[in-house]
Design a protein that fits this description.
Largest sheet: 7 strands, mixed
Distance between the termini: 50 Å
Strand content: 15-25%
Shape: globular
Strand order of the largest sheet: 1-2-3-4-6-5-7
Number of domains: 2
Structural class: alpha/beta
Order of helices and strands: HEEEEEHEHEHHEHEHEEHEHEHHHH
Radius of gyration: 20 Å
CATH architecture of the largest domain: 3-Layer(aba) Sandwich
CATH superfamily of the largest domain: NAD(P)-binding Rossmann-like Domain
């Protein structure tokens, strides 16, 4: 019960209860909220199989000994345990971390469902400096995951690495991407880049009449674990690639490597191009930014690109911009980690990765046929997978 007296625990609890309502206290240092509605949600899909604003549970844990402050959101476990990475960021406050983890866990439900995986949506958010993660906090996070008893399976995300995952795996069985005993690791960035490129080819086929990237201008924003690989693959396919990143030297080095162009991050989304590929953080497609875009296609790996999903997709469509829904085209990572965790092999991963292109094209045609946005078409696909099986 020592954490109950911790100022950080007290302050975080007060902030979270202000957003979610009264918490259920588990073992003194673990709080839980059940059947939770996102505080920033609009409720447009209430009653449908996939409601991004309704979460099964949210957990908060503060480990006083290590200083860990962490949230885990379980959006849905209809198809299986909640599956998703641990995002480690210097959030300004616990409220910012909460909004992030709610949005990301809901996106994981959709991503797993459309990818054909038997997992639900989960996500973790840890408040801290990703460049200086104490070993004690990694261990404490692993114990936190273990206490959830398998309802949540963790893996890497922004701010966490395979080395972090190895340390976490010392404390929990409920982890994907690294094997106990360190027999093998799963690189989720490579399959994610592949599914983004597969989706890009499909979007180009729909928008331009052929799937070729050769000769097209592709602007890749965010050149980290996934974005850098997207840029390399696009360049290898003959695209004229421009790259932008928060770390300018990284973008310059990558541009030199692939024979592309390094551009400033500020204004990168305003560049004229055939394909804009967001591969950093979410919310970049919003009522303000959409009016300034100068692209024909948006296709990237960043989660939650639409600030308001699916409403902002209507703004994109009105401007003649084709949006390839992010959780459809960025499914490679969850496919690789999920299949590996479930005991599947490389052939099954390849099968599901290869499906992403045809799935994307089918979705784009569905949107055109039904007169709806591509975001709405993607939601229909999620609904179909999550709908209860009719009684015999």
């Amino acid at each position: 019960m020592a954490n109950a007296a911790s100022p950080a625990f007290h302050d975080d609890r007060a902030a979270l209860e202000g957003l979610l309502g009264p918490a259920e206290e588990l073992d003194g240092d673990l709080l839980r909220w059940t059947s939770t509605r996102a505080p920033d949600g609009d409720g447009d899909r209430t009653g449908l199989p996939y409601d991004p604003d309704r979460h099964e549970a949210v957990y908060y844990h503060h480990d006083a000994a290590s200083g860990l402050r962490a949230l885990v959101a379980l959006h849905s476990t209809v198809l299986g345990p909640g599956f998703g990475g641990a995002r480690w960021r210097p959030y300004e406050d616990i409220g910012e971390a909460l909004i992030d983890v709610l949005r990301l866990s809901a996106a994981m439900t959709a991503k797993s469902a459309v990818a054909g995986l038997d997992y639900g949506g989960g996500k973790a958010a840890i408040v801290g400096d990703a460049a200086a993660k104490p070993a004690e906090q990694l261990a404490a996070y692993g114990r936190f995951v273990e206490r959830l008893g398998g309802r949540y399976v963790t893996t890497t995300d922004v701010g966490t690495t395979l080395d972090d995952l190895r340390a976490i795996a010392e404390e929990t069985r409920y982890i994907a991407g690294v094997a106990h005993g360190h027999e093998h690791d799963v690189d989720t960035s490579e399959p994610t880049a592949r599914t983004v490129i597969n989706g890009m080819h499909a979007a180009c086929e729909f928008a331009f009449g052929n799937s070729l990237l050769a000769g097209r201008r592709v602007v890749v924003v965010g050149t980290g674990k996934v974005g850098g690989k997207v840029a390399r693959r696009a360049a290898a396919a003959g695209a004229n690639v421009a790259v932008a990143d928060l770390f300018e030297d990284v973008a310059v080095d990558l541009a030199r490597e692939i024979g592309g162009e390094a551009i400033a991050l500020e204004g990168a989304y305003l560049q004229p191009c055939d394909v804009l590929s967001p591969n950093a953080l979410g919310g970049v497609l919003n009522p303000r930014s959409i009016t300034q875009l100068r692209c024909r296609v948006v296709c990237g790996a960043a989660n939650n690109q639409l600030l308001h999903d699916p409403a902002d997709a209507e703004l994109l469509a009105a401007r003649g911009i084709l949006y390839a829904p992010d959780y459809i085209v960025s499914a490679g990572g969850v496919i690789a980690a999920g299949v590996d965790h479930a005991g599947g092999g490389a052939d099954r991963i390849e099968e599901l990765v290869a499906r992403v292109g045809p799935t994307t094209l089918k979705l784009l045609h569905l949107a055109e046929r039904e007169g709806i946005t591509t975001a709405e078409a993607a939601l229909l696909s999620v609904d179909a997978r999550l709908a209860p099986v009719p009684a015999a």
